[in-house]
Amino acid sequence: MIIEALIAVTFLAALVVFVAPDEYAGRLAAALSALPILGSLWMWAQYDASGNALLGGSIAFETDAVWLTLGGLDLHWFVGVDGISLPLVVLTTILSTLAIVSAWTPITERESQFYGLMLFMEANLIGVFTALDFFAWFVFWEAVLVPMYFLIGVWGGPNRRYAAIKFFVYTNVASLVMFIGFIALVFGLGDSVSSMRLPEIAQALRAGELGAFAGLDAATLKTVAFVATFLGFAVKVPVAPLHTWLPDAHVEAPTPVSVMLAGVLLKMGTYALLRFNFTMMPDVATALVVPIAGIAVISVIYGAMLALAQQDLKRIVAYSSVSSMGYVILGLVAYTTYGVGGATFQMIAHGLISGLMFMAVGVIYNTTHTRMVGDMSGIADRMPLTAGIFVAGAFGYMGLPLMAGFAGEFFIFKGSFESTVHAGMPLFTAAAMFGIVIVAGYLLFAMQRTLFGPFSFDGEYEITNAPFHDVAPLAVLLLLTIVLGVAPDLFFGMIQEAVNPILTGGGL
Amino acid sequence: MFDTIALQTEPAAAWTALAPALLLGLTGLVLLGIDTISPKETSNTLLAGVSAGGSLLAFAVAAWFLVAGTGQERTGGPISLYGDTLVVDGMSLFFTLIFTVVTAMVTVAAYDYLREQSHRAEFYSLVLFAATGMTMMSMANSLATVFISLELASLPSYALVAFLKKNRGSVEAGLKYFLVGSVSSGVMVFGISLVYAVTGSLVLGDVAAAIGDTEMAGVLGMGVLMIVGGVAYKTASVPFHFWAPEAYEGAPAPISAFLSSASKAAGFAVAFRVFVEAFPLGAIPAGVDWVLAFQVLAVVTMTLGNFAAATQENVKRMLAYSSIGHAGYALIGLAALTAGGPNGDVLGASMAHLLVYGFMNTGAFLFIALVEHWGVGRTFEDYNGLASTAPIAAVAMTVFMFSLAGLPPFGGFLSKYALFFSAIEAGFWWLAAVGAINSALSLFYYSRVVKAMWIESPAQDFEITSRPVGLYAAVLFAGLGTLLLLPAFGPVIETAQAVAAALF
Known about the structure:
Chain A is mainly alpha-helical. Chain A has one domain (2-503). Chain A has helices at residues 2-19, 25-46, 85-102, 111-130, 134-143, 145-155, 160-189, 198-206, 218-236, 245-252, 255-280, 282-287, 289-308, 313-334, 337-368, 384-398, 404-417, 425-450, 468-486, 489-503, and strands at residues 60-70, 73-81, 376-377, 456-457. In chain A, the strands form two sheets. Chain A has a two-stranded antiparallel sheet. Chain A starts with a helix and ends in a 5-residue tail after the last helix. Chain B has a domain at 289-504. Chain B is 72% helix and 1% strand. Chain B is globular and about 70 Å long. The chains are: A mainly alpha, B mainly alpha. The interface between A and B is medium-sized, with 35 and 32 residues. Chain B: It is found in: Membrane. Chain B: Pfam families: Proton_antipo_M (PF00361).
């Protein structure tokens, strides 16, 4: 019942904060959001499960109860975690609290509503990563959109209405496409499944029990469903060329919301790709390996090139996410322990590091009120601590050893290099590795021009060190990045255990 | 649901099964009695309290009957009364739940709305009498009682729409509603007479028995088509929808809520029973394909309702058109029927959607009543920035809007899902597809309200002078209902599908 408690406590906290007075809403939200952190860390400490939750593994902290029955199909309240979802739950709870703390400075109006929505979103995100019944999962998945729409639309920048609506429309249409694709699979499975529990569907699909539906034979139906779900999730990830909502949303969103967007929301897409496409339909994924790996490489290179061309620090970090998520897809399609496991690990690593980068940009913006590279230079003279953490985070992003980013990228490259799904995988890997060079390029370029050199600043604001509560979340994230870089086995062991069943048995 | 609750050892008199309807009618009479004692100074609180109490009591009795199994298979099947002209079964009780809960919300909300009005007792009693008529509509098992109960529900509604007699819009709406309503009644009663001419009977079961070997299939077809027209009017389906936006806009907002939720559900109650019982798919002559008529109606109604709603500048009108769209969704319950298909599932899903709709749509109109109470305008622009002055009510309205659009985590998501899922299950995946696309489009205009309230900043400062208790209570109650119907949807859909299956 710990998962239910986690979700319920976060919902209640959201309610309490929503009606609390503005003066102490931020502090209250941070204090209350410590509870889910404690809960998720307790789960991590007590974690005792093996294998993949969808493919016959044992599931930790499981609850399974029939919710309602509809036309012979049971919908369940079915939650639980395995080695893939538990790290993401921990990431969600920790990053949410840090994002809430980082909101204390920039958010100055309608504060209780802001923090209430942040906590509401956190509760739904925990639900996304723990739900193991398609229906319960979809309810949480869609429910994340609602607070995000308001968070961008109310507290965002000057162009916030456009960005909020674009985000909402893109991701909602994507959800519809994905939903149709998945439901077609369920109808195609017919009587061989009696519920929408993901394990049941995954195993039935792997056992080849799919039948014809709506005039499509089983093989075509599976391919169509794979493409529909892949497109639906790919918008969320996002991969090029479905990424155009992301920079708008990021640039308009306030810093803490960008942190959640890059740190956790994008992982919903890759997590769903792993759970649905790559776990349930490995045969289609391997058949489509060339286009998928191609999309991954294009996302890596194109995203990095776009980042290189930006003048806005936040845009640089935003586009870099497109690039990093490309690595994750490459790791997934490789179908090796290191590939899929590395992709999962990279989700956590990228969550920490991109959160760190967005927060660092936010701290600089809070002081300078500009994000344009051309407007400032030598900021490190006046804000040495922030600049130092920014540099350290950027190194993490570039994949310097002993940082989480290195571990994630190394695993992915090792995995995709050794991959046997297609003869061309080493080529794809080599092409994707060029991304590292460009990443180093745009980050060093941005740092050199804003942080270093002689101090100059086009603006009337006084540039001083940021307050403690602005820098503290950065420090925590940096610490976690290093800890995970030094000891990836804190998570990688359980990830590997959960990933291995995907690679053996079934369609491969 | 609860199989083994033995209620009584010896059966009560059959007429006691009418208790919910009788309670509603009695409450209406009591209200008139109270008013007679001191017509000038009758307390508004007392009137609203009695009407809400009466309808909640009727709700409780209907819920008790439904749980105890009154009129359902496990306690001996439908209770038939007065020569089979009225029948109490699970379906009529389920619809009674919708009517009574909406009536309760509307009367509580009207407490504030009517504070400055005269003739308050008449208002409440008319609402209660209309609710009685609706309950009778759900029980009517003969074309004659169908017509009588329909008029019993309609006549008070005409008066209620025109209730603001110093307001031109309200009077005009009332007149329009009355004229269109009378014509439709005429059409329907003519259809009924044609069916009588063919079958020689008005009781639904006897009609069904007689249609199989008729030689006058053409006359029967005309009759059925005219009854379809009457039903389409009552449920505000295209092409008989023109009265709805006018009536809903002109009427006092609680009455718009009442008409668009309860009255519409009553129309569906009649439609479901009449078409399933009197013209069963297996027995009806091949030329009289009413399912096709409902398929066309459903698709056209959803699409036109949605597109018209998208072009409105006035929130109340937008809601009126969107309620036409929702009539289209509910029509799937009839449009996806097949001989021998999973008909109980489809019809039950429609009924469950109407229940959820009863909460979310009533709540949305009552929010408009609240905004009217504050003297804010009716256009989207006038709603700008409402959330900063009334955040709690705005949260409730947001819940209604997203639930109407079918977004999780609200009740409307599950009920729409159940509806579309059942349609696919019955083999009508194209109906489900049209519904899903319409549903996705509807997000556009529903989110406009949300955007205006939360994201836009107010054009001019307005102060909220009072926080009307009754309206707030009703809006929050509806919001809570919309939210709780997501986790509690299991018993709702299971009951609905079970009682719907009993019809076939």
